Amino acid sequence: MIRRLLAGMVLLALVAAGAVWWIFVRVGTPYRGFTGGEVFVELPAGTSVSGMADRLAAAGIVPDALTFRLAARLSGQERRLQAGEYRFADAATPTEVVARLARGDVFVLPITFREGLTIPEMAGVFEAAGLGPAESFRTAAGRVDLIRDLDPAADDLEGYLFPSTYTVSRRTTADELVAAMVSQFRRVYADLRGRADTSSLSLREIVTLASVVERETAAPDERPMVAAVFLNRLRRGMPLQTDPTVIYAMMRLGRWTGNIRRSDLQMEHPYNTYRNPGLPPGPIAAPGRSALEAVLDPANVPYLYFVSRNDGTHVFSSTLTEHNRAVNEWQRRRR
User: Fold this and answer.
1) What is this structure's pTM?
2) I want to staple 306 with a disulfide (CB 3.0 to 4.6 A). Which of 265, 271, 272, 314 is the partner?
3) CATH class as words, domain 24-103
4) Angle between the N-to-C axes of helices 65-75 and 94-103, in degrees from 0 to 180, rounded to the nearest 10
5) Rounded to whole angstroms, how far apart are CA atoms 67 and 48?
6) Where are the beta strands (DSSP E) in the chain?
7) Is the Cβ–Cβ distance between 38 and 89 less than 8 Å?
8) How many CB atoms lie within 10 A of CB 260?
9) Backbone angles phi, psi at 40, to 5 degrees
10) Domain residue spans in the chain?
């Protein structure tokens, strides 16, 4: 009797040991049950561990739902598993899958809008990232309710979609992204609010001038001087005479081909600063922080003119005679 009892206990112990061994082998063995290069699995908020297990097993990420539940239980991270969309490409053990969900290692897409882009150009970036048609972004960029308190005169969000890199999911909508870009503009503006409140310019004028500065030069150290030139001209009642505003006008008319002709400088359009004094009616692009700061803290210089050196930098002049001399020199070099 005792022998049989001992034999039974030994057998149970062996079975238990075998089960434990099987479990650890199962949760520690890499598995890839899907075809193709990658697979995405969406785990909605509120999904239970069992629900996650079912979705992962159905997608071929883990061999079966039970194995995933066992891996989650053994890891002690059952309550830490996070919802979201996950991308899987390589074979992974169920334990590794649990660890990814516990870290919240969800799939995200970085999308970068560089400084100086217009709404249509941003729409092209949005479409190229695979987030949706460009038209949906252009439509979302018409939601002036997002900045009505800041700029009651705005008829779109030009200038208020802050250029930066945003992290989005594959399902991020144009409305959601546009709202995030406006929120980022608000955060930057909040940092600059003290200087903006002491400026003689309104917020709309600050953003408008900053957008012109942004399009005129890509050299950060030049932006305060470019801003100073435009502010000096405004104070003297001189027209800004800046090509980017003409380009923007031509873009709005669907006439921009990459070149400005002399006749274009004479066209009748509110954004043509060769014919119209003062600032253009609104922003012509998305200024970055340094362009906004340049308008709020311009260089203390007497310059009224500048001409390109054809390398991204400019020669600045205080008089028309100096400017004409610089224009002649650098136009000859360009030819």
Assistant:
1) 0.83
2) 314
3) alpha beta
4) 60
5) 15
6) 39-43, 84-88, 109-112, 165-168, 305-308, 314-317
7) yes
8) 14
9) -110, 140
10) 24-103, 119-301
